[in-house]
Amino acid sequence: MWQEERVIPQFQILLQKLSDGNAITANPGDMADAPKYIVETVNGEVVSVGSNSVGSNSYTDAKAGEVVSLHADPVNAAGYNFKYWQVLAGRAVGVTGKIPTNDYTFTMSNSNIVFKAVYDLPKVAADDADADEEIRGGAVGEFGLDPNQIPALAHEPTTPQDQSLIGVNGAKVDYRVIFSKRNASNAESALVKPVSVSGMDHPDAYTPAYALDIELERYVDGRKVGRATASNASIDVTAQLPAADTDQLDYEIFDVTTGTPVAMSYVGDLDNNAGLFKFTANLNHTYVVVYSKVFKVVFVDNKPGT
Predict the structure, then answer these.
(1) Is residue 31 predicted with pLDDT exceeding 50?
(2) Could you tell me which of 79, 70, 76 has the C-alpha nearest to residue 102?
(3) Averaged pLDDT for residues 19-44
């Protein structure tokens, strides 16, 4: 038999061997985890999850294996036509790409998932560039933008030169928001540790999860071309932690662009949000995500009745 002593992150786990024959009374039902996940929509509705009618844009008690029904109006209240559903953040098995059906059904996996209903929104100015997003170094669904901010995001960096290329030459000008995920450098990790909750309260468990560079790139007819002036436009980011990281503690996001870390967001209560979080970022800034590493010991009785 084994005995578990509950610990908090800065202390070591202690397991003690007990002599055979010691009785441990436990109800396996009380020990089993039943993970809950979030299913959410932007510009649409979660109609139902399993046997539960929802009728709103978010449901926080979804479980893996449940069938989820989504709905987006074919024409929204502003008169714009529905184009497709796409995963904004999170993941589900078999759910990929652009989904052109406004009524859509899928099965939940072991993850949160946020869908965006994309409509044929007009540009702020007719000769604005196009805008899109791309993830590098991370998985699809780790980071995403609210589609409603795309027209303004395309308008802000568009220059008179872009407008001339588009209107006179018939060129295609695109701006891409790049979410570039990488390992945090030792210098970035050391910069954040003294001011983070995990670094101060659990210094031995403090861990940099990753660094995120949010960049803006310009393309003309598919070719990457430099831009005369940088943009630091504000964007709303939705992020989903990778599955391997959702059982840690004290996630925090810091902006380290200037060399002085600025706290942006704190992600707690992972038992109820399963690693889904949102924060406001700026283009051409660098962020570091840190946490306290915790270890979970699970006991499984593989010899029932003995």
Answers:
(1) no
(2) 70
(3) 68
Q: Which secondary structure element, helix H or strand E, spans residue 69, and what is its range?
A: strand 67-71
Q: Show the tokens assigned to 22.
A: 């010691």
What spatial distance separates the first Cα and last Cα of the chain, rounded to whole Å? 12
Extract the tokens encoding 142.
């780790």
Q: Are 112 and 272 in contact (CB under 8 A)?
A: no
- DSSP lists the bridge partners of residue 290 as 208, 252
Place of tokens 């995920």: 181
The CA-CA-CA angle for residues 268, 136, 191, to 5°, reads 50
DSSP 47-58: EEETTEEEEESE
Tokens of 155: 């308008």
Q: What pLDDT, on a 0 to 100 scale, did the predictor assign at position 275?
A: 84
| pTM of this structure | 0.81
Between 140 and 248, residue with greater pLDDT: 140
Mark residue 305 as left, alpha or beta (left: phi above 0; alpha: psi -120 to 50; beta: remaining): left
Contacts of 27 (CB under 8 A, 6+ apart): none
Task: Spell out the residues 6+ positions from residue 172 whose beta carbon is closer than 8 angstroms to its own.
Answer: 130, 166, 220, 221, 222
138, exposed or middle or buried, with CB in 10 Å at 0-12, 13-18, 19+?
A: middle
What is the arithmetic mean of pLDDT over 143-169?
93
pLDDT digits (tens, 9 = 90+) for 184-206: 999 999 999 999 988 998 888 89
CA atoms of 90 and 241, how far apart (whole Å): 8
Q: Are 185 and 142 in contact (CB under 8 A)?
A: no
Task: Tell the residue number behind the tokens 């509950």, with chain if given.
Answer: 6
- Compute the distance between CA of residue 60 and CA of residue 38 in angstroms, rounded to an integer: 4
**DSSP 8-state code for residue 181:** E
- 8 Å CB contact between 274 and 35: yes
Alpha helices in the chain, H assignment, sequence order: 28-31, 150-155, 160-167, 186-192, 197-201, 270-273
